[in-house]
Amino acid sequence: MKQIDIIIIGVGGQGTLLTSRILGALALELNTDVKVSEVHGMAQRGGSAMSFFRMGEEIHAPLVDLACADYILAFEKMEAMRALPYLKPGGTVIVNTQEIVSMPVITGATEYPRDLMDRLHKNANVLAVDAAALAIAAGEPRAVNLVLLGAFARFTGIDRASWDRAIAKSVPARLLTVNEAAFEAGYQICAK
Asked: How far is it, in rounded angstroms, from Cα 13 to Cα 37?
């Protein structure tokens, strides 16, 4: 299997850790080496949450170096910009178009940048997804992570059955149906 290096980034509570867990289950399903490193920071207080994810034939270290990530899965636009230095030339950013304003924006100390998507498009291949709307349509507003994972799945060439088994191993049974629906919504984006 070709090595894949991914940065998963969002705001605390958006499911970056579950996304890493599903990708880890996928790597095990494919019988490939995997390394994951998570950076929580102030994630539990609405701050940035980032995971480094690497899988391939032989992975020696968990961290993705600057300018080396094949993909960035960004659950929020500003978080995509934070992770952009990790993306390698020709890499792809799959980004949720949702804006989650930070405390400095709420208090008026700073403004949320309005040109984020333009800046992303200038610096990367970008697939912008209204993952929040698709998650709501799937029946679970918190399933933005599964929508983005579904969109990402099309880029990997990994068979759908392996993805389905990885999700089933990682998501509680009571939430499986809605998470599968969210994944399918993202998966269908690239089919159009």
From this structure: 17
* Edge-to-edge order in the sheet of strand 4-11: 33-39, 48-56, 4-11, 69-74, 87-96, 125-129
Instruction: Write out pLDDT tens, residues 16-57.
Output: 889 999 999 999 999 999 999 987 555 455 677 899 999 999
Structure tokens at 26: 């996928």
Residue 79: closest CA among 19, 133, 21, 14: 14
User: With helix as H, strand as E and coil as C, how does 56-114 read?
Assistant: ECCCCCCCCCCCCEEEEEECCHHHHHHHHHHEEEEEEEEEECCCCCCHHHHCCCCCCCC
Q: Examine the pLDDT at 84 and tell me if it is beyond 80.
A: yes
For residues 54 and 35, the answer to whether their CB atoms sit within 8 Å is yes
CATH number of the domain to which 45 belongs: 3.40.920.10
Residues 24-30: contacts with CB within 8 Å, 24+ apart?
24/53, 24/170, 25/165, 25/166, 25/167, 25/169, 25/170, 26/55, 26/158, 26/162, 26/163, 26/166, 27/55, 28/166, 29/162, 29/165, 29/166, 29/169, 30/1, 30/55, 30/158, 30/162
* Domain membership of residue 47 as a residue range: 4-189
Number of separate domains in the chain: 1
